[in-house]
Amino acid sequence: MHNNLNNSITGIPRAKKRATIIHESLEIEDEDKSISKTPYSYSCALLPLNEDSVILMRYWAKKHVPKNVLYINEDEGIDGYETEPHVTVKYGLHSDDPIPLIDLIGGIGNIPLKFGKITKFDSHPDYDVLKIDVKGDKLMMLNKMISSSLDNTDTHPDYHPHATIAFVQKGSCDHLIDNDFFDKLSDKVDTLHFSAKDGNTHPIYL
User: Fold this and answer.
1) Which of 35, 90, 104, 116 could tie 201 with a disulfide, CB 3.0–4.6 Å?
2) Measuring CA to CA, how many Å separate 165 from each of 43, 57, 106, 168?
């Protein structure tokens, strides 16, 4: 794991060459493939999960999380069930330009992910976040790499990677905590999405 990340840092000519190729494809494909969304305060780097993982998470959520406990707020863009399961690598990036991130991580290769048990974030006053804990040495190093190399505001100093299952009403679904349905399952992601603060999403092929 360490060697792959070190190569992506010290192997500058190879990374920049790959970044140039991707940059050219972005200029061609931006209009068709960038997803327009509501603007945010910061940009974000995230890993979209593969289809098999997404299908499994949606199945589990709809089986175990009843609709009457979902938190839905259209103004905040929260629809209850997570519609696009992903793992956030770094939120708080200042730039809305994907190129610095592309140059930094070009050639880094696939990111292996290992899922854990069901847990919750309960710090928001209006809702709880039901989630799956995620582990991965390369994922942790990628977070540190981006945090130390690109301008950012560290909104979450302690990085706890996870995949959100659903937004639920306060105090609900506590019986699902520590459920081990996903424990020991894994995924391997070959694309990172740069979700810019202007609302556009750019795919970066790892």
Assistant:
1) 35
2) 22, 7, 30, 10
Quick one: pLDDT at residue 38?
A: 54
For the chain, the farthest-separated pair of C-alpha atoms sits apart, in whole angstroms, at 54
The answer to the question of residue 72 being in a domain is no
Residue 11, domain CATH = 3.90.1140
- Whole-prediction pTM: 0.80
The count of domains in the chain is 1
Q: Kindly tell me the sign of the dihedral angle through the C-alpha atoms of 78, 201, 139, 206.
A: positive
Within 10 angstroms of residue 88's Cβ, the number of other Cβ atoms is: 19
Rounded CA-CA distance 140/142 in Å is 5
φ/ψ (deg, to 5) at 19: -65, -40
